[in-house]
């Protein structure tokens, strides 16, 4: 984190895939720690592409990105994993490992980070309990419902206590009740200090988190009365 408290700053960022037109253009904004952001926009507006920039799965075609005080464009590739570990990701399609139990899926980030087996069990059980899955610890993803898989994916994304959680359409596969519960989980996490960024085209979701801030993408550009999301973005009405 930098002195002025930002965690991410985009300066005039653009993204094109291959030689096609830009799918994201002129993005200038700052994300501040501990806030809850929604990223909205019609299908194809560029939400997933922007999230991929945020969790460092994609480099922009132009512009500057500063993350946790580091220039994310010019830093040595070897530092990428260190930066990525500070970001938890909930993918639209979960990306759970089907032959591993819920426990082992959630334990994965800790094992990758080199935690000892003796130290894993407690935190993994606690977090599965927190997402309401203490009775499904041994279950493999194909035997879980969509909402249960989603909660395993959330538990895996937050087990290593990331500074920022990024979630792509996390309620796309669940009923309204479960959507409400998942939002409560994200809010609880946010109250513990995690910056949350949720991409969704479901405008009802925005009302479920009154303190949230909105980033609205329109054909690859941030549409806000000021022309871009800035310092900080306005609150939901
Ligand atoms: N890997 C890729 N190669 C080429 N074009 C891509 C790629 N990924 C996305 N696009 C294009 O970029 C644009 C933005 O796509 P993106 O998936 O970011 O939008 P989105 O807002 O997340 O859409 P949805 O809500 O439907 O998931 C679309 O025109 C899409 O076709």
Strand content is 15-25%
Number of strands: 10
CATH class of the domain at 34-56 and 86-222: Alpha Beta
Cα-based radius of gyration, to the nearest Å: 18 Å
Q: What is the N-to-C succession of helices and strands?
A: EEEHEEHEHHHEHEHEE
Major sheet strand order: 6-7-8-3-9-10
CA-to-CA gap between the ends?
29 Å
Return residue spans where pLDDT drops below 50 for at least 5 consecutive residues.
225-232
SS field, number of helical segments: 7
What is the molecular shape? globular
Q: What is the name of the CATH architecture of the domain at 34-56 and 86-222?
A: 3-Layer(aba) Sandwich
Ligand species: adenosine-5'-triphosphate
The average pLDDT score comes to 89
Q: Which class of secondary structure composition applies to the elements?
A: alpha/beta
The name of the CATH superfamily of the domain at 34-56 and 86-222 reads P-loop containing nucleotide triphosphate hydrolases
Describe the structure.
Belongs to the ABC transporter superfamily. Keywords: ATP-binding, Cell cycle, Cell division, Cell membrane, Membrane, Nucleotide-binding, Transport. GO terms for molecular function: ATP binding. It holds the Pfam family ABC_tran. It is a peripheral membrane protein. The protein is an alpha/beta fold. The protein has a domain at 34-56 and 86-222: Rossmann fold (3-Layer(aba) Sandwich). Helices cover 31% and strands 23% of the residues. It is built from seven helices and ten strands. It has helices at 47-54, 80-84, 102-112, 117-130, 146-158, 176-191, 203-208; strands spanning 8-16, 22-31, 36-40, 62-67, 70-71, 87-90, 164-168, 195-199, 213-218, 221-222. It has a six-stranded mixed beta sheet with strand order 6-7-8-3-9-10, with helices on both faces. Helix 3 (102-112) crosses helix 4 and helix 4 packs across helix 5. Residues 225-232 have low confidence and may be disordered. Bound molecules: adenosine-5'-triphosphate. The site of adenosine-5'-triphosphate has 11 residues, from helix 1.
């Amino acid at each position: 984190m930098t002195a002025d408290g930002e965690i991410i700053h985009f300066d005039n960022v653009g993204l094109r895939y291959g030689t096609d037109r830009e799918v994201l253009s002129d993005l200038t904004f700052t994300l501040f720690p501990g806030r809850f952001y929604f990223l909205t926009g019609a299908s194809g507006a560029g939400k997933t592409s922007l999230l991929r920039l945020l969790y460092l799965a994609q480099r922009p075609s132009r512009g500057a990105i500063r993350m946790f005080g580091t220039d994310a464009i010019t830093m040595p590739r070897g530092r990428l994993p260190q930066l990525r570990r500070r970001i938890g990701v909930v993918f639209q399609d979960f990306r759970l490992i089907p032959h591993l139990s819920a426990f082992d899926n959630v334990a994965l980030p800790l094992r990758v980070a080199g935690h000892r087996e003796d130290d894993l069990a407690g935190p993994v059980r606690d977090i599965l309990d927190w997402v309401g899955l203490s009775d499904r610890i041994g279950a493999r993803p194909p035997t879980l419902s969509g909402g249960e898989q989603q909660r395993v994916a959330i538990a895996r994304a937050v087990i290593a206590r990331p500074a920022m959680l990024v979630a792509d359409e996390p309620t796309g596969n669940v009923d309204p009740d479960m959507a409400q519960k998942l939002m409560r989980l994200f809010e609880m996490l946010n109250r513990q200090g995690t910056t949350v960024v949720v991409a969704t085209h479901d405008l009802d979701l925005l009302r479920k988190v009154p303190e949230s801030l909105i980033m609205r993408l329109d054909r690859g550009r941030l549409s806000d009365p000021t022309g871009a999301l800035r310092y900080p973005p306005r609150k939901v009405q």
